[in-house]
Amino acid sequence: MYCYLKNKFRNFSVLSILFSSLLIISSFDTAKAQINDSINEIITSRLRRNVEILALGDPTHTEGTITTHRVDLIKKLTTQRDFRVIAFESNVFNMYIAYQKFLKTGENKDLFDGMYGLFPCQEFIELFDFIKEQNEKGDSIIIAGFDTRFSGEKTFDNLKNSIDDYLSRNPQFKTLLSEEEKMAYYESLYPLTHYGISNLFVNKKKVYATLLPYTELILSLIQSTKEQNTEEDVFLTQALTNILQLHPTDKELNFKEKGNIEDKHMLDNLIFLREQYPNQNIILFGSTTHFLKDSKSIDQSFFQNYRMCFGEHLNKTFKDKYFFIAYSAFSGTRKGAFVTRKIKKPKKSTIERQAEYYRPIKLGEQNKLINFSILLNYGTLILEEKIKSRIMGHTYQSMQLDKVCDAIIFLENCEPYTKLPTKTEKVEKIE
Predict the structure, then answer these.
(1) Among 18, 231, 241, 333, which one is least packed by beta carbons within 10 Å?
(2) What is the pTM of this model?
(3) Within a 10 A sphere around the Cβ of 62, how many other Cβ atoms?
């Protein structure tokens, strides 16, 4: 495993390089990994003390070894560095409902129900079991979501149940929203919460004509009773706000600008989470593409001209309180469309290939440091203007790497994750 940490030295942009091996004990079915945790220990002990938001990004969501390694790091950060909120790239409202159910039942399936269908995998079970154990000890760790788009199989039921519950507690609003109007609203809401071929045939203009005004109405009702609202009501208001944010009525909005709406309002959801869980440090778990600190540093027309990622909003808003670690599979196998494929040897002129020339560095007691920004005395690599990397998938992108992320970890002998079915009664760890 190779770890590159950004550093500034003699006016050059350099990467300090740390190396450690990763032993993988795996099969196609279980993708189990034994973690050599020296790099995770280094990150845990030396991460800047002012960091309040730490993003851990993956190339494609389907790397089992990268997920296993991040799970190990999360366990260390929650117990040693007081990061108490773990926010996944899944819907903020659905993950709240999922976590509340998990607190009652202790069942991993409840958390998977709130996630995007691509996420549920065997590698998360160790993390969820750990969180359950910590919570039972009274050492609470919160699971949340930061995405604006709906996720999970039970989205519609969650929204309908929460709205019905609110209205049942506030009968004074019955005359403002009749049963017929409420049913019409739910009918318009359903396509928004389900993804499938049938959605291709939905008359979206007709759906939004009902969806948006009634969303505004219900949102205004809940906001009018702010003093007596439950925590679930508060998260429901954020879900309704997201609906309005993702479906603006401004017809003049450029199509390419619409692609940034989701990331822009991920920031709103992150700020919302910080308000709900004040004084809590947050770990973000999701796609590297969302966490990029500077979109224009990617040498691609779309990123330079049209894209502004969630991470860029975080970087501008929270400055050095935001820290982003990217991961890349140095070798091993990856999921293809239909089969597992071997990860190709890194090409020349890539950061992955340059990592190959560095050897393990012994970390003595005298080298215990407190800050990534003063990692001197290690092998260093002066960056060129731009360099290629595959942190955003299994194809290379040219980028100004030191502006895109704060650290990169390259893992050897990577294996794909073990996907779990999204519809299941019980999810247990495979031994």
Answers:
(1) 231
(2) 0.85
(3) 17
